[in-house]
From TrEMBL:
Source taxonomy: Bacteria, Bacillati, Actinomycetota, Actinomycetes, Mycobacteriales
Pfam family, one: DUF1963
Annotated PANTHER family: SLL5081 PROTEIN
Residue stretches spanning the membrane: none
Protein name: DUF1963 domain-containing protein
InterPro entries tied to this protein: DUF1963 (IPR015315), YwqG-like_sf (IPR035948)
Amino acid sequence: MFENESQARSCAADYFPPHAIDHAMAQLIPAIGIRPVTDDRIGGTRIDGAPDVPPHFEWPRADLSKHPKLAPYDLSPEELPEGPSPLWFLAQIDLAEAHRLGRIADQLPETGRLLFFFDHLAGAYLEGPEAVRVVWDQHDTSELAPANVPKELAERADHLTYPAKPSALFAGVTLPQRGSMCPETEPLFEQMDAGEHPLSEFEEEFDQFCEEDGAFVEPEWRHHQILGVPVPCQSDPRGYIDHATPEDWVNLLCYANVEDGEGEVYFLIRKKDLAVRDFSKVSAVYMQT
């Protein structure tokens, strides 16, 4: 992800002659990005750590101990305990901050925060809603306080409870990824391969441009993404849960594991569910290179 079109244009100059740069810029796709900052605040955007919650908040749990899809995997009783187990907290998104970016946030609720939870261990083997919870918290920030992370998470895998990373949102742009099979971008590559696009003679340069991350102080953060078209490390994550109509799903959040530099979790929601603010049916897909 680029932080803005100007940054993308500057990078494009390293790959394309002047007459082709505008054609490359025409492929930019708006999305919301996340970058690290130094100031943490109650109710603010944050990656990892713990969420800010109201009194009597119930930390999301899931009972995955007897899930049939996990049977073939060698998960120990500590990794997959009996009964409902707490999920790891991955992100807190300040929705008011998102809407200050403009129309790019139109699909999201205007107030409150989205809190994202995921089972780091079992979720790597499950594609769907079982290992994920998304909470839309609408309490005023004056009612919030940092949550206490359940001790069971440290008992399961202490190394997966990462320190808090104060963050900020920005209105960024992404580029299509060859091989992602996203229905929104596949026609571009079909036209390029058929020699029917102005960028056809620059296919190799375009592919290199799409992988550009040299302009970023924190390159691994470029994979955090809200909305837009997925930029997966494999193929379209929406296709893993809905092969027939992946375009019916929204990329609510791509969480990148910047702590280990490996692994992405895609939180996906149907457009119709997002429109009515029903976050109870969010699905997750884990990917890594």
